[in-house]
Amino acid sequence: MKLHFLGAAQQVTGSSYMLEAEGLRMLVDCGMYQEREFLSRNWDDFPVAPNSIDYVLLTHAHLDHSGLLPKLVRDGFAGRILTTSASRDLTEIVLYDAAHIQEEDAAFKRRRHERERRKSPHPVVPLYTTQDVRSAMTLFQRTEYGQPTSLNGQVTVTYHDAGHILGSAMVEVAVTKNGERRTVVFSGDIGQWQRPIVRDPSVFKQADYVVMESTYGDREHEDWGAVQDQLAEAINATVAEGGNVLIPTFAIERAQELMYHFAELVREDRIPHLLAFLDSPMALSVTEVFERYHGYMDEEALRLSESHGQLFRFPGLQMVRSPNESKAINRIRGSCIIMAGSGMCTAGRIKHHLVNNLARRESSIVFAGYQAPGTLGRRIVNGERVVRVLGAEYPVQAKVRQIHGLSAHADQRGLLRWIRHLRAAPRRVFVTHGEEESANELAARIRSKKGWSVDVPRYRAAHDLD
After folding, report:
1. Residues paired with residue 69 on neighbouring β-strands, in sequence order
2. Which range of residues forms the domain containing residue 356?
3. Domain CATH code at residue 304
4. What is the largest CA-CA distance in the chain?
5. Helices first, then strands: H and E counts in the chain
């Protein structure tokens, strides 16, 4: 067996690992790079010939795990893409959205070059198109948790719930040769314990090799109090001032988790019964997938769904699809809650709502997720007093708040808790999907606590597995 690290090695995005075993080449994830210094890798030829890969084993729908699948297919991959049913449907939404953005960006750049009479040294084309996504979706094969899938007689793949987002998985690959069995576990993104909606992460008693993520491998999530308490305080304080509550919202998991919490707060009369808008066509489509796949949810979510009918709906909630409906929100007088994409304020409808609320001292901008360096969201969180939105500058006079405790990733304590369930030492642990400092810190902790062999592989490194 041989394991290649083709992405997410000492970095967080671009997740991609290739396992060679018993005549098969299996690619675990095919993610897009999102850190600024690595964006050029999205355009590079794939490190191995796409037509030499037999299977893609997709852990979940996030772009940093699925985002280069259409390009891989266009460049020659013709095998099967295995993933859970929920992940398959979420990935379709994510990839079509990414393709539309790629096509729109390329068209905008071409128009700008024509207007400025500039000649680009390279053709201005999208990374991939909606037609490439259509081609990729024909190759998907659904699997479910705990159901072994035989790939060629010697290799079996089993998916386990990762507890990260709906349908997310850890992938266990079992290889039998000359009567000996070896198992390789790919953690995917490991979720937190006791989060709403999704189940707790799966754990393993045995594995010969482990490839595990380390996004928060060097730190622990701070305890800022219950999420619902933070939301209730932000909403009640803003309503008392007569302002709006704006929440830049990620379409997958974060939007649904927020609606879940709001539904609870409304049912318990802990917040006023306001008009609340989910202003994100992508988040609406994702919510429909969540509502189709209740079987992936935890017992508490199922109980609430049975007792209240709809898990994510509550009185006053309006689902907004059309641009005209979105524009109409800003004509409303009185307080309301506006959840709109994108989560870091880099694009989408949230920008139009910011234009109408940034200068209002009575309004609040409530951030419910990580804000990457350089994004508009990060500049607002960092306290910049004037920001540029849609080509104009606006003073930031609204109150800026942050909701903590919504991360879908396990922290260092959770990662160590996950790997501690192994009863015997693996032959080797590979720590990936984390910045260099984070990955090295987690690796050092595992070595010191367990005495196991732990590597932090570099990009394109290859390791023989005996």
Report:
1. none
2. 227-402
3. 3.40.50.10890
4. 73
5. 13, 22
